[in-house]
Write a structure and sequence with these properties.
Blueprint (H helix, E strand, L loop, with lengths): L26 H12 L1 H15 L5 H10 L1 H15 L6 H8 L2 H23 L3 H12 L2 H7 L2 H19 L3 H28 L2 H15 L4 H8 L7 H6 L1 H4 L1 H4 L14 H30 L2 H12 L14 H8 L4 H35 L18 H22 L4 H23 L7 H5 L7 E2 L2 E2 H22 L1 H7 L3 H24 L15
Antiparallel strand pairs: 1-2
Length: 535
Amino acid sequence: MAESTASQGSSLAFERKASGLVRGLDMWDAFGAGLMTCQPIATLWLMVGIALSLFPQGNLLIAIGLGAVTAGLGAPLVWGILSSSMPRAGGEYVYNSRILHPAIALGAVFTNILAVFYWNWYIATWLGQPALELLGQYMGWESFTTWVGTKGGLIILGLIAIVVGYLSVAFSMRSYAIIQKIMLIPAIGGPIVLIIALFMSSKAEFIERWNAIAAEYGSLDYDAFIAAAALPNTWSWHHTLGAFSGVYALFVYNYVIAYLSGEVKRPDKALLTGNVLAVWTPIVLGFLTVVGLYRLVDFNFLSATAQASFGAGVEGYMAPYNPDYLTLTWIASGQSGIVAWAIALAFIAVIWLEITIALLVIARAFLAWGLDRMGPKWFTDVSPRYASPVKNLTVAMLGFAIGLVVLVLWLSNQLAGLVGGGMQFISIFLITGISAVLFPYRKNVRHIWDASPYKTWKFAGIPLVTIGGVLYLTFIITMLYFSFIDPTSREVTGKYMIVFLSAWAAGILWYLFWRAKNAKKGIDVSITFGELPPE
């Protein structure tokens, strides 16, 4: 599918080869890519733990509802319409460089790539904790439980996850697509099993089971646990909006579909539909999970479990199980082995799904930069045998492996995911939301907008992509305030702002370096940013 995007006549910049990628993925593959980055069971685990440890008076049901009418509607429109209008590998870099400016796009994507590395160092440790550690605790495998939680265990298991993920995507996208569909079964099925367990138990049964565990280990019974945490039993608007710091992952990680849009068949139909499904599947799972939890336990009890598992702890809690959403569901089920295995298999699936898509994101980002002459020539190398940028994938894999070791030995932090999410909110979601709002009105991309299959999609005369961008930005800006500026969270997360600024500066300097390097060869790279990269 070679495509020349060179300008004509005296404005000729350079000829660009076709990317070498193949459009072999379908709508379900696109949906899987978006859902795998959401990682349903991990998202639900972090949603309750992070939101209620930072904002214990947050009402998760209201937070999900507000997110659904803003990002739940805006995210599919933003990413579905942009990716369908510019169906090329490379994600938000392609959109932001064309609609806004390449320096802004590279500042943003540098921060995103750093966040992707950061996230996946952290996610690789999940194979040990919580996945296999919880399974060992629930099944009574004491020696196994101890080993998987050691630094050695976390490193060995994490490296296995990274290498298996690399081998799954480096040499065959067709095999990857098949495995992805299989992995979606436990990834979605696991949370469904847990939802069923929550609805099959009563509050009285849960309290009885909690108290039995408390008696066995000399820990706090249900009422004593609430008293020790000393948290209000009412919700507030301030804390409910603050709970966006936890529920955000239900709404935004469909964006990864954009990185594979150059490999999806019928992008005009597949990409928007895949984005809608990738956003609303987690919303439904999240809503049902929270309803199930609220029907079983008191409001302040649930917040107390978040304090005990993700926050400062609850004095007197002595049971060996981290009292998070996963353990609460296992207790509600009567310590069911089925629930224990559903948790473990769901985590194993989403760890594989996330690491594989993260490798693809980095590889496709490098490829898009290279096609715009914003990087070394080897960024554009795609193996003709495997139709895959194997060199880029190998660099990403090595970065994951080295970072994992560094994280486990020196940087481990339970709120690391929120920090990575913050980098992405500023660099991807905020900037791309602005691009979506401006897309129909920017003269430099008028030819792309005029060719978009969604040009005529309007409400009250306003393009739907612009409306989607406004809804999306409403959620993003609210989440950023409560997660990084509000006094409740600022001391935990605000200190990492220097990381964001440094990544942005690096991206802008990268752009300036490559623009100057090409100018010395008589090549004006600015011409390229008026066209789409080749497929």
